[in-house]
Every structure is written in structure tokens, then in C-alpha cells.
Amino acid sequence: MNTIKTFTLLLGIVALFTSCRDIIDIELDSVEPKLVIDGAVTDINDTLVIQLTKSVDYFEPGIYPPVPGAVIAVSDNLGNTHQLNETSSGVYTDYLPGTEGNKYTLSVEVEGEKYTAEVEMPYKVLIDSISVEPTPDYLEFSGGYLVNCHLHDPFGVENFYRLKVSLVNDLEEPDDVLVVYDDAYVNGNQITLRWDEEQFFPQDTVVVELQTLAESTYEYYRTLSALFESGMIGSANPANPITNLSGDVLGYFGAYTVSRDTIIISE
Question: What is the DSSP letter of 23?
Fold first, then answer.
């Protein structure tokens, strides 16, 4: 089961956060097949991957036919341009390690149309430390330990985060949990993010990944979360998350930096 949550961090609340429930005006789209563009520049992967697919229902997994034959380029504010190669049907790649502070522009030409998007790579916020605590009784599972991620939010900078926590052997597994935060009320403060999506047990090696997101990437995740909460995912007329892509297209062109740390759970 997919889990998607957004949180606005509140000063003075260390481990428990209330979901952000903004009123979002999202226009409904028809169920005609649409182009889906997905990809993100990161500082942890040297290879940029842009995937092009089509789907009648964007929110149903496993039904995206690939879209081959596109011309895709990514340029940056320093004058560099990368032409992506189609390495498999609908999958386009090139060597492009992301750099903090750089701005990236995506251009996709396919089926007689051109789509563009811009994104700025945020500056990395580092994990300060990791801690564990016994799983509280009020959760639906118990008997193990929850993992906390501690960080210092930079003062005067609006930051957006995604937290990922997994066993070390599951690090590359497909994501089925998406938890994002903004620092609207805790700017410049010490923050603790508690991962209560699953518990861990003694001798588990757990990897904590803190992603600092571009604002447009956060907005895409945030509005996707709102659609899940409203029950519109999988409906006959699904709405679209907010995207930075031009034109009548689904998906996003994202950017994020990554800080990782590891802990072995002890008794």
C-alpha cells in the first residue's frame, strides 16, 4: 500500500507532527492518454534518468506504456547542455551529477510537441545524528524501535525535506512510502523527524536518507498527497498534482540533495 504524507513542522513539537491540510485548487483532467515525464537531478547519482510514459490513469501503477523516440536535453545556468540518450524504450539517460545552487532546464520534444521545465538544486542540509526509541503502544505495531532523524534547519532559508528510512538491504527497492515536510514554523531551529511508518529490531542495520527538495519538487509531492487524502487517486477523473512542466503533461522534473547516515539497532 502506498503511503504519502506531508507535514508542516511546528516549533516545540519534537517527534509528532500534524498533517498539512491546505486547501488546494486542482483542476480535474480527462482520462485521455497523457504524456508522463518523470526525472530528477540529484547530487547522489551521477546518471540523470528521464522516463517518458503514457497512461489513461496516471495513478494506476504498472500501466504506463513507454514513449520512445524523444529528443531530450538538459542545460544549466553555466552554459552546459546534456543530450540524453535513449538507453531503453522510453528511458533516457546521461552523465549529469547535480550541483548545489545550479539551475537546470529540461527540454523534451516528442510527438510534435515540446515540453520544458526549470528547477534549482537546493543546498544540502546534513543529518546531525540518528536516535532510536521504543515503539509507543498507540501505534498499530509494537515491540520494536522507531528511528529519529535529527538536523539543524538553516536560518533564513526556506527548506523542504523528504525523509526515507529503510533496512540497508532494501535501500534500492521501489518506494512505497513518501513523507515530506516544510520548515515554515521551525526555520533556523533544531528539528527531530520521527519515522513511524515501520519499526525495526535489534541487529537491524537501518539507513536514514534526508532529501532537501527543490520547492517545485515539494509542491508536486504535497499536492499528490492531497489527492491521496481526498480519495481522488484512481478515480474516473483523476486530478493532477502541481507540476513545473509546461503543457498538458503529467509528472515532474525535480531536484534534490541527499544526506545519509546508518545506525545498527541495539537492545
Answer: -
Whole-model pTM: value is 0.85
Tens of pLDDT, residues 70-120? 999 999 999 999 999 999 999 999 999 999 999 999 999 999 999 999 999
C-alpha–C-alpha distance, residues 222 and 24, integer Å: 10
Which residues does 61 contact at the CB level (< 8 Å), separation at least 6?
none
Same domain for 118 and 75: yes
Residue 219 lies in a domain: no
List pLDDT tens digits, range 209-243: 999 999 999 999 988 877 776 655 544 445 678 99
**Pair 183, 172 in one domain:** yes
Q: How far apart are CA 4 and CA 226, in angstroms?
A: 9
Same domain flag for 74 and 197: no
Closest CA to 68 of 33, 108, 104, 95: 108
